[in-house]
Design brief:
about 325 residues, alpha/beta, TIM Barrel, two-stranded antiparallel ribbon, 10 strands, globular
């Protein structure tokens, strides 16, 4: 009798196990989040918006280059928020013919995003675009000879923009900050001669629609050349007050309009918090990127705001949380 009872128990357990397995392996539909689909109307409105006068959303994106075959969306152009106006390609130009290049072209042509190459503007910049003997040929002979060399550099830069279909250049110029050797361009007068040469092909004086940006120390562009800049970009990293932002703009050359001035936070360090603690006179203590978005100088509206290594924030629980808030503060969506 005991053996019979044990057998019945074992059979019962076996039947329950089979039923349990059957239940666990039954296919059921999952409620997955569907990707957003951009309609033609939405994209047309997006392009139209970017052509309007507004405070721009700017960012240095460190994953701009390569072939775009990374499994991580953080490394692809497709992940960049649609409302970003200017992408400074800190990660380089995409590989020609690659999916990444196609994605950049889509962002430019369909979303109206401006793609600009970024480079340090030092002696290396001159020899890259003016030839390895540039310094021997053109430096040391006065401004007239330098201007001849700078004209060649400017034409070479313009040809590079055309070659890759880019929308402009962002010159990282910080001879007094990083401890690097900026060479002959450390002199603001010499640097301004270069800006004048570039302004023939890009920037608001050129009529080409191409952008000419200087970041880092845009105050090194003097009064005679500052009109050639599309934007001056302040690396206002770790800024905690409006007065600090105002003093940076006040240091620009006379005649530079406030609506061409962009302030940027460092998301290589502060992407998790949206910046440092910023004391806003209206909104209290807030993340500094949001403070930059709210801030406008006493001269009028600013040009925009942005972040260095903006792509780091893709890893947030809400991707690009602070960057999107920044855009909404500067340009609230219609309700």
């Amino acid at each position: 009798m005991e053996k019979a009872i044990n057998t019945i128990i074992l059979l019962s357990i076996g039947v329950l196990t089979l039923l349990s397995c059957k239940k666990d392996t039954t296919a059921v539909p999952l409620n997955l989040q569907k990707p957003a689909i951009s309609t033609e109307g939405y994209l047309a409105n997006l392009r139209a918006y970017k052509k309007t006068k507004h405070q721009v959303a700017f960012g240095w994106f460190g994953n701009s280059g390569g072939d775009g075959k990374s499994p991580s969306m953080q490394a692809r152009w497709e992940s960049i928020p649609d409302s970003v106006d200017i992408v400074s390609m800190w990660g380089g130009i995409p590989t020609p013919g690659s999916p990444q290049m196609a994605a950049m072209k889509y962002a430019q042509q369909v979303k109206g995003t401006k793609a600009v190459m970024v480079t340090f503007s030092n002696d290396g910049f001159l020899t890259t675009y003016g030839g390895k003997d540039f310094l021997n040929k053109y430096a040391g002979g006065g401004d007239s000879l330098l201007s001849v060399g700078f004209a060649l550099v400017a034409k070479s830069v313009a040809d590079t923009l055309d070659k890759y279909g880019l929308d402009g250049i962002d010159l990282d110029h910080e001879p007094h900050y990083c401890g690097c050797n900026w060479g002959i361009l450390s002199n603001s007068g010499t640097y301004s001669l270069l800006i004048k040469a570039l302004a023939q092909y890009m920037g608001p004086l050129s009529g080409t629609g191409k952008l000419l940006l200087v970041d880092g120390e845009p105050d090194q562009v003097n009064t005679g050349a500052v009109a050639g800049l599309s934007y001056g970009v302040a690396q206002a990293y770790g800024t905690s007050s409006p007065s600090s932002l105002q003093s940076r703009l006040d240091g620009m050359a006379s005649g530079f309009p406030s609506d061409r001035y962009i302030v940027a936070e460092n998301f290589e360090d502060y992407w998790k918090t949206g910046g440092v603690s910023y004391n806003d006179p209206v909104h209290g203590t807030i993340p500094s990127l949001l403070g930059m978005a709210y801030w406008n100088p006493i001269q009028g509206a600013k040009g925009g705001a942005g972040a260095y290594h903006a792509e780091y924030e893709y890893s947030s629980p809400v991707p690009y949380n602070y960057l999107r808030q920044m855009i909404q503060i500067m340009n609230p969506a219609a309700k």
